[in-house]
Write a structure and sequence with these properties.
mainly alpha; 180 residues
């Protein structure tokens, strides 16, 4: 009973914002694919999905965010250590993403020509999607700091603003430029 009450108290105090944030992002995530399907075509959805999978593959190959999260939570009281940890994580993540993008630049054209020839004309879209990796590298440590400083409510509102901006930009860019 005490564990249950503690869990309910914890969710009410901190977890509700994460639950609401997850719900809003899950409701909006299929919208990108739907926009591509409406404004471009079904083949555009396949290209968009392929580009997202390449991006996700590289992100998952170096799970630095999940590694750094608990470490920042433990070192948050030591400002210099936390700052140094985030700077080093960004540095090595940027290096890994850069090497991955250079590798993709050389390997993908040959791999796609042999195994997925229907996407051979769509390499530009994949490379544009991979550029988002460099933006992600600068976000390393932000979520951990937000949780360590108990600012989940701020993150909820910020992520919803980000979702709205993304929806508007997705509609405009997909309408005017297609999948890119």
């Amino acid at each position: 009973k005490r564990t249950h009450d503690a869990l309910v108290t914890l969710i009410r105090a901190h977890g509700k914002w994460e639950i609401f944030r997850n719900i809003s992002s899950q409701l909006v995530s299929p919208l990108q694919v739907w926009l591509v399907k409406v404004f471009v075509n079904v083949e555009g959805v396949a290209v968009f999905d392929f580009a997202r999978k390449m991006y996700s593959f590289i992100i998952d190959a170096l799970p630095i965010k999940s590694i750094i999260f608990p470490v920042i939570s433990r070192t948050i009281k030591e400002k210099h250590t936390t700052e140094l940890l985030i700077i080093k994580a960004k540095k090595y993540t940027l290096l890994f993403y850069f090497v991955s993008c250079i590798g993709a630049l050389f390997v993908l054209p040959y791999a796609i020509a042999h195994y997925l020839p229907q996407y051979s004309g769509e390499l530009f879209i994949v490379f544009v999607a991979l550029l988002h990796l460099f933006v992600d590298a600068y976000k390393i440590g932000q979520s951990a700091l937000i949780y360590a400083y108990d600012r989940q409510r701020f993150q909820f509102f910020l992520s919803n603003i980000s979702i709205m901006v993304q929806i508007v930009s997705d509609v405009l860019f997909v309408y005017y430029f297609g999948v890119v």
